[in-house]
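A reminder from the course coordinator: this example appears on the midterm review sheet, so study it carefully.

Given structure:
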């Protein structure tokens, strides 16, 4: 069926279709390549052992509010939300299993939200950091 259609199409239209197909092919390939590594910005880094198999995001690629929260975590506070620094239970089992108390969570403010919103940073006692923007449904390992 395709060979019968090709001769009837004007050359410019055929060229346009081929360019769109090529763009979709290239975009699909690059999206597949980044989905295993996750989001990153800047130089390519290999993920640390604790992030093995997870999507990753560099600190510089996080939303500005998450970077501000990271600075507060590094300083030890003060934190704007009472629940910041509380134990994260990992009930969803999205992070590596650890004993209770290993992980702690911090709110990443979401502009326009009246409550704490869905974004969080979770830290582990081994100095690992994870980011979620969908209220613990998925996490990315933060490369710092």
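Designed residues:
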């Amino acid at each position: 069926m395709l060979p019968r259609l090709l001769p009837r199409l004007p050359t410019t239209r055929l060229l346009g279709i081929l360019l769109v197909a090529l763009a979709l092919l290239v975009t699909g390939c690059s999206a597949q390549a980044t989905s295993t590594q996750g989001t990153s910005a800047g130089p390519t880094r290999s993920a640390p052992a604790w992030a093995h198999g997870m999507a990753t995001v560099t600190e510089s690629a996080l939303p500005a509010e998450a970077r501000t929260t990271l600075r507060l975590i590094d300083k030890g506070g003060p934190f704007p939300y009472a629940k910041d620094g509380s134990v994260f239970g990992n009930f969803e089992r999205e992070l590596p299993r650890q004993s209770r108390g290993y992980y702690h969570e911090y709110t990443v403010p979401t502009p326009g939200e009246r409550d704490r919103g869905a974004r969080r940073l979770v830290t582990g006692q081994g100095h690992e950091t994870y980011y979620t923007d969908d209220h613990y449904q998925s996490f990315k390992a933060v490369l710092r």
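DSSP finds three helices and six strands in the chain. The two ends are 54 Å apart (CA to CA).
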